[in-house]
Sequence to fold (234 residues):
Amino acid sequence: MARPRQTIKVLPIEQLTGHPENIRDDLGDLTDMARSSREHGILQPRTATEIPSTEDRYLLLDGHRRLKAATMAHETKVPVIIRHLVDDPAEHTVVMLVTGTHRRDLSAVERAKAYGSLRDRGLSMSDIARRTGVTPSTVSYYLNLLRLDDALLEKVETGEIASTKAIASVRDNRQQEREGNGQPLRGRPLAHFGSDHPLAALVSNTCTHRHSYDGIGCGPCWEKTIRNDAASGK
Fold:
């Protein structure tokens, strides 16, 4: 019988090791989460994989905040989904990205850095999109943030500058560079995503994501709305 891709176990906390490349830069304030763990117990499992050459140690792929909160709540054991034979570092990042994106608790900068990590490991934009379940344009959208210098990137991370404004600025600068070098412009003009766009109201009503473009909607929701509108033939 073939081994299942994953199993669920209840493990002592000391058998879990935090991932050294966790894409969450800051675990944040865990007081409320720890209080919830004390009052209601552990409701969601963590995700981990075996550490090669060890019998009872597991590398955490998802749930660093929840594990820390459980420790603060003096829990000794937690439920864990064990993903078997996930020994590719790129796949570790993919799991972190997918689970974090589904819960919508990754910042734009954390997501950009994770995509950048996969790119640095040799994955193409199409590969990243396929393995994380998003479109290549979404990957490109977030990778634009990595074109910022460290000072500006930190301002985006702290919320001093909106990520959508930063990405718009990066795209604008790239267009100006191409125009200055006599190269053809690429992509849609930035005004395309303005409030005067005929689909702006629809995007605004349907987008519930944290990182929206000029307060209207995020890049992926703009893309989905425009694609659906084109498919409808209206």
